[in-house]
Amino acid sequence: MKKIFLAGYPDTTHNYKNAFAALGVPADALPLQEKEPVFESRLSALSDLSGYDGLVLPGGGDIVPALFGAENQGSRNMDESLDRIQLYLLESFVRAGKPVLGICKGLQILNVYFGGTLIQDLPPRSLSIHAYQNGDRIHTTKAARGTFPEKLYGSTPITNSAHHQGIHTPGDGLLVAQYSQDFVVEAMYHKSLPLLGVQWHPERMCFAHANPRTEDGSLLLRYFLSFLKNT
After folding, report:
1. Residues noted as catalytic
2. Nearby residues of 215 by Cβ (< 8 Å), 6 or more positions away
3. Secondary structure of residue 69 in the 3-state scheme
4. Measuring CA to CA, which residue among 45, 43, 15, 42 is closest to residue 27?
5. Of 62, 60, 77, nearest to 6 (Cα)?
6. What residues form DSSP beta bridges with 185?
7. Which of 145, 181, 147, 146 is nearest to 161 (CA)?
8. Digits of tens for pLDDT over the chain (231 positions)?
9. What is the bridge-based pairing of β-strands 27-28 and 100-103?
10. Alpha-carbon distance 219 to 224, whole Å?
11. From 202's CA, which of 115, 142, 150, 217 has a CA 20 to 30 Å away?
């Protein structure tokens, strides 16, 4: 049976775990509690990832700006230990040639890993489209021709948003697949590796969290799982 590793704390990844369970794939979260200090001895517990077929980098707070060579210009709710664990796990799965899916912050982790940069606080007009406010924002996007969002949802997918940061400079090898009406990047993929990411939250667009105003997020999750069968 295929198995997923969730690069997030157990108490913040329930929706991801439940969505993959509904698709018949078990998913394990980090064996750590939120804000728990991480030492090298704890990282050793993550060294054997051979039993996992894919990695999911979930949503969360902001990435420490120093990790992409910047000063803090609006980043908040940061957890450097988690950032470093996620980058460590991403490195491990990239080296193993295993598929990776980044969701919201996870897309940004992918971008930073490949040398890209972030907009640390979107301008007011963009925040009115993307920033969480009493729930996810819902808006129309544009999918690039021939990319996975277009294949799954057509040329103008309707997605959710709950973020105040965005992709600035794409990382090496990453290509933009989807963007919003204000040109904030909504999805990317790697040109040669089985890596993809979305700025939206598919786990909150399917099954118990299905929203009639958005696309079916399970299609994206199924697409990611299809890569596992080929590794």
Report:
1. 104, 201, 203
2. 152, 153, 157, 158, 159, 205
3. coil
4. 15
5. 60
6. 179
7. 181
8. 899 999 999 999 999 999 999 999 999 999 877 666 665 555 655 667 889 999 999 999 999 999 999 999 999 999 998 999 999 999 999 999 999 999 999 999 999 999 999 999 999 999 999 999 999 999 999 999 999 999 999 999 999 999 999 999 999 999 999 999 999 999 999 999 999 999 999 999 999 999 999 999 999 999 999 999 765
9. unpaired
10. 9
11. 115
The residue whose two tokens read 């729930």 is: 135
Query: Which tokens belong to 213?
Result: 């105003």
What is the rounded distance in angstroms from the CA atom of residue 54 to the CA atom of residue 103?
14
Q: Helix, strand, or coil here: 196?
A: strand
Burial classification of residue 73, based on how many CB atoms lie within 10 Å of its CB (0-12 exposed, 13-18 middle, 19 or more buried): exposed
| DSSP string covering 26-41 | -EE--SS-TT----HH
Question: 67 is written with which tokens?
Answer: 């990790």
Instruction: Rounding to the nearest 10 degrees, give the CA dihedral for residues 180, 17, 90, 126.
Output: 20
Tokens of 53: 């077929």
